[in-house]
Amino acid sequence: MVEAARAFADRMAARRTIRDFRPDPVPMEVIEEAVRVAGTAPSGAHVQPWRFVVLTDPERKRQLRAAAEVEEREFYARRASPEWLAALAPLGLDWRKPFLEVAPVVIVVFEVHQGPHSPRPYYVKESVGIAVGMLITALHQAGLATLTHTPSPMRFLNEVCGRPREERPYVVMPVGYPAPDATVPDLTRKPLSEILIRD
Ligand SMILES: Cc1cc2nc3c(=O)[nH]c(=O)nc-3n(C[C@H](O)[C@H](O)[C@H](O)COP(=O)(O)O)c2cc1C
Question: How far apart are CA 189 and CA 192, in angstroms?
């Protein structure tokens, strides 16, 4: 058991957020199985308040990128505080979001709030966050790279994805294989001794 846990932790430690993708298609069955994993997440009162919209159509992805870049230009030029921009600087991010078009799959995750067919949901953000963590884990385990992308604001995603107002965008996740020349920021993670407190 310990060996398996260690091997899994090592595998997860190798996950990195990828921002440059190859356009090559990925097996749709893998995406479906990963969403199935996400759908096993625990949720407050078992309301399962999530929706996963899988975009692969090039025209849809082009629209997504165009709409996102309108918001991102505004964000970088005016909306972001100097502190926020300073925190993003080491990651080398800017308003351009080519990955929304280049990645073969983009999964847009929505929180499902009260609607005609759902009971009142509890702990929606917590539940969807756990489901997204499981989605990232499942995709990584299958050998696919992901980017956790949070445009600000996100409401334009309802229109791009054709989803009703009671669904609120949570995250946009391009999925695919890393581009051959993809690089990642030189980050370190907090050691176990810092994040784990024992009695
Ligand atoms: C809630 C959340 C929002 C994020 N938003 C963005 C984003 O909008 N754009 C981006 O390039 N990366 C985004 N990231 C990725 C983080 O920058 C990345 O996870 C972090 O730098 C650590 O790198 P790693 O995932 O390679 O370990 C986000 C991550 C999280 C968890």
Answer: 9
- Give Cα 76 distance to the centre of its chain: 20
The reported pTM is: 0.95
Which residue owns the Cα nearest ligand 1 atom 6?
149
Name the 3-class secondary structure at 11.
helix
Q: Which of 16, 93, 148 has most ligand 1 atoms within 8 Å of CB, for mutation?
A: 148
Are 124 and 111 within 8 A, CB to CB?
yes
Positive or negative torsion for Cα 158, 163, 166, 172? negative
The number of C-alpha atoms within 13 Å of 184 and in the hemisphere containing its C-beta is 13
88 or 15: which carries more pLDDT confidence?
15
Q: How many angstroms does the Cα of residue 91 sit away from the middle of ligand 1?
A: 9
Q: Which two tokens stand for residue 79?
A: 């909306």
Q: Is 182 in the pocket of ligand 1 (CB under 6 A)?
A: no
End-to-end alpha carbon distance in the chain? 23
- Packing angle of the helix pair 124-141, 28-38 (nearest 10 deg): 140
The Cα–Cα gap between 128 and 150 comes to 14
CB of 16 sitting under 6 A from ligand 1 = yes
Instruction: State pLDDT tens for residues 98-140.
Output: 999 999 999 999 999 976 555 667 899 999 999 999 999 999 9
